[in-house]
Design brief:
10 helices; mainly alpha; three-stranded antiparallel β-sheet
């Protein structure tokens, strides 16, 4: 993560943002500025861009928000991570090429698995909070019928702690929010 943070290249920033938000590659690369609420520290991914076809609210840690603020200052597209072709996002291979260039034998999606393992093994957050952070379908149909919330504030705490674990934020950054 420190190596990723050392570069201002768009593909490096996209990978850092993807790791910090624990979203899928396509969700991060398809991010639009219209989906970001800086004041609420919130990114809302519309249903049509989600695997489960349900809106997903992503709480933004200070580190993730910092990436967005830096990119917003240089905004040249409706996409947060614009590609070379006008009106298109960064290629879905861009982040994988960063990892290959770093000579790491990992995948972008593997960071979601790392997030899940970290949440289960080192935090006291309930299973449902981590699963909702990953936008996974939680529980059976009956429980889902009764569970109307998305545990957003608990997920905010989890994502702040993840940013600290990743070394891209400190406890002081979290407390300052």
């Amino acid at each position: 993560m420190r190596s990723l943070a050392a570069s201002e290249a768009l593909s490096f920033m996209a990978l850092r943002f993807t790791v910090l938000t624990a979203v899928r590659t396509s969700e991060a690369l398809g991010a639009m500025w219209s989906e970001v609420d800086f004041d609420a520290r919130l990114w809302t991914i519309p249903p049509e861009r989600m695997k489960a076809s349900r809106q997903h609210r992503v709480p933004l840690s200070a580190a993730a928000l910092g990436i967005l603020r830096e990119l917003h200052a240089k905004r040249s597209s409706d996409f947060v991570f614009p590609g070379i072709k006008a009106g298109k996002p960064l290629s879905n291979m861009a982040m994988l090429m960063v990892l290959r260039g770093m000579e790491l034998d990992v995948t972008v999606h593997g960071f979601r698995s790392s997030f899940r393992d970290w949440a289960a093994e080192t935090t006291d957050y309930p299973n449902e909070v981590a699963e909702m952070a990953l936008a996974h379908v939680v529980a059976d149909a009956v429980e889902r019928a009764y569970r109307r919330g998305d545990l957003f504030e608990k997920r905010r705490g989890l994502m702040d702690a993840w940013a600290v674990f990743c070394g891209l934020a400190t406890k002081d950054d979290v407390d300052a929010e």
